[in-house]
Design brief:
- The structure holds two protein chains of two kinds.
- By secondary structure, chain A is of the alpha/beta class.
- Helix content of chain A is 35%, strand content 28%.
- Chain A has ten helices and 14 strands.
- In chain A, a hairpin with a 2-residue loop joins β12 (252-255) and β13.
- In chain B, α6 (146-168) packs parallel to α11.
- Chain B is globular, with a radius of gyration of 20 Å.
- The chains are: A alpha/beta, B mainly alpha.
Chain lengths: 312, 281
């Protein structure tokens, strides 16, 4: 015995997940991992297999091959879902129950004891505190999605899986979801977030997995995926020496007075001020300096288009 | 734990859905109408147009007829509850959130089945008892074995809802209700045809009833219930004249048949569990 507690297994680990519907492959060889307290975004076009992957993790759809482990237990074992909260893409809750009763039901099904005030806090968190006693049947789509979020959060989960959590929400609701995800992350709860809203994913996720036609097209931290940082400059009176200095920094594209310089990955903070200082020393007139970054959207579209060209 | 939670949820669903209201209204209408009918029967026998034996026979026959109406209401009610509660929840997405909890699908299914069985049996026993009391109050007839009759009617309801649940795992909610009630009706008709075959001494036709009673035990259990409701003395006197009459049970149920009905329910339940277990949501 060496003492100390062993490192906790990741919240999600799956490898080689495969699922066909008839002859059409929905998911092909998907492997991914979500660490404890990590927020991972699942991105991809419609029909990329995102929801199917999530359902396979939760035992709702049987994989044809591959294996998945949730919080250290094989995904086929119901006990693996004891500390998992899930908001399905197709969400609907018992219309004949009140919002508070739906939460009480899910707490009982999860086999945990959560006192009524805590359950009510959960409803308040998603903006349904005032509607706790109302029948779910009278709720709008957006309110049902908020209730679904409360259901996913109520049983003190260690992993929360959100499948399109903002599809029915107004901009205010989307901001609420973002805050909730960030609060979960701060509490060390792992989150797997499937969303079409790239901006949403970019703001809250530590890592992103991009699925395309059932396969993982790319994955990594935002820094890794968006690695290329750029610097846009507007310069006049450029001498050959100054041009050489620019080229020494990275690839240069020129458009009239405008120059775009690619900064090397893992670049330190000093590169930009040093470049500007050297250019000024070489007699260059510097009109504008603007850092730029490839957005996740551009990167996603690039990956998906490259995939289409490969397939064609 | 899961089983009891889901059973309680199912009972609450049954009590809060409009289906319950519809069943209560139908039952009340049937009880009122039958109360009026039985009071007319009492008045006729008081006038001396019917002998007391004839009146008792008529009362016990009418009781069977009204009980058939009740069992039909129970059948429709449970079949149309069983369908939506399982396949409706799968289609609408309610099942997704529930089955993503640390629960076994078989436990959820057992809970639903128990809740529906309690609801259906509770209805049949209460409504049936009320009907017996109406008959007692109007014509003074009390069936020989009411407890057996009500238990068999409850059993019939359980058989039908088990079939409804099995169908609900493979077809749409409405279709499962329609098919279950259709099969229930078909078995009853086959039972009547079989009875006529027996009365005519035609073994081939008689076998139709026997086979259908094995395939779906609703009609067999119903006949056992009728037998427990009717007056044995009057039946012995007039029985031969009523051969093949659909609202007459000629013999009590054998233990073997009851065992078969229980085994049938267990087999259908197991099939449902297997089908539900393998279903993608």
């Amino acid at each position: 015995m060496t003492g100390g507690t062993p490192p906790s297994p990741p919240a999600v680990r799956c490898s080689g997940l495969r699922r066909r519907y008839g002859r059409r492959p929905a998911v092909e060889d998907v492997s991914l991992e979500v660490g404890r307290g990590e927020v991972v975004g699942l991105l991809g076009p419609n029909g990329a297999g995102k929801s199917t992957v999530i359902k396979m993790l939760l035992g709702l759809v049987r994989p044809d091959a591959g294996e998945a482990v949730l919080l250290g237990r094989p995904a086929g074992d119901p006990a693996s879902r004891a500390r998992v909260g899930y908001l399905p893409e197709l969400f609907r809750y018992q219309p004949w129950l009140s919002a508070a009763e739906v939460l009480a039901l899910h707490v009982r099904l999860a086999g945990v004891t959560v006192p009524a005030p805590e359950r009510h806090d959960c409803l308040s968190l998603v903006g349904l505190g005032e509607r706790a006693a109302d029948r779910v049947g009278g709720f709008s789509k957006g309110m049902q999605q908020r209730l679904g979020l409360a259901v996913a959060l109520v049983a003190r989960p260690e992993l929360v899986i959100l499948d399109e959590p903002t599809s029915a929400l107004d901009p205010l609701g989307r901001a609420d979801v973002r805050d909730i995800v960030l609060a979960l992350k701060a509490r060390g709860v792992a989150v797997l977030l499937n969303s079409h809203l790239i901006g949403e994913v970019e703001r809250v996720c530590d890592r992103v997995v991009i699925l395309d036609r059932g396969r993982v097209a790319a994955s990594g931290t935002l820094g890794e995926l968006l690695g290329r940082r750029e610097l846009r400059l507007r310069l006049t009176d450029l001498s050959p020496e100054a041009q050489a200095r620019l080229a020494a920094t990275g690839d240069v594209r020129r458009d009239g007075d405008g120059f775009t310089v690619a900064l090397p990955a893992g670049d330190d903070e000093a590169a930009v001020p040093e470049l500007v200082r050297d250019l000024v020393a070489l007699g260059v007139r510097v009109h504008a300096v603007e850092p730029a970054r490839v957005s996740l959207e551009e990167r996603l579209l690039g990956i998906l288009r490259a995939g289409q060209e490969d397939a064609a | 734990m899961t089983v009891l939670t889901v059973a309680a949820l199912t009972l609450r669903e049954a009590s809060r859905r409009r289906a319950l209201l519809a069943v209560v209204v139908l039952t009340a209408a049937l009880l009122l109408l039958s109360g009026w009918g039985f009071s007319r029967l009492a008045a006729e026998s008081g006038l001396g147009t019917l002998t007391s034996g004839q009146a008792r026979l008529a009362a016990s026959q009418l009781l069977n007829l009204v009980m058939f109406g009740l069992s039909l209401i129970a059948a429709l009610g449970t079949a149309f509850l069983a369908g939506p509660t399982l396949s409706g929840e799968t289609e609408s997405g309610i099942a997704l959130a529930v089955l993503a909890r640390p629960v076994r699908r078989s436990a959820v299914l057992l809970g639903k089945w128990l809740g529906l069985a309690a609801f259906g049996s509770g209805f049949v026993v209460l409504a049936g008892l009320a009907q017996c009391l109406v008959v007692l109050a109007t014509v003074g007839y009390w069936p020989p074995r009411p407890a057996t009759a009500l238990a068999l009617l409850a059993g019939q309801t359980v058989v039908l809802l088990t079939l409804g649940l099995l169908l609900a795992t493979v077809v749409s909610p409405m279709a499962s209700g329609v098919v279950a009630v259709g099969l229930f009706g078909a078995t009853w008709v086959a039972g009547v045809v079989g009875g006529i075959g027996e009365a005519l001494g035609n073994d081939g036709v008689a076998r139709v009833g026997a086979v259908s009673r094995m395939l779906l035990p609703t009609d067999g259990l119903w006949r056992g219930a009728m037998h427990a409701l009717q007056d044995p003395v009057v039946l012995a006197r007039f029985g031969a004249e009523f051969d093949g009459f659909p609202f007459l049970g000629e013999a009590p149920l054998s233990a073997a048949y009851l065992g078969w009905a229980a085994a049938w329910v267990a087999m259908m339940w197991a099939l449902t569990a297997v089908s539900f277990q393998h279903r993608d949501l």
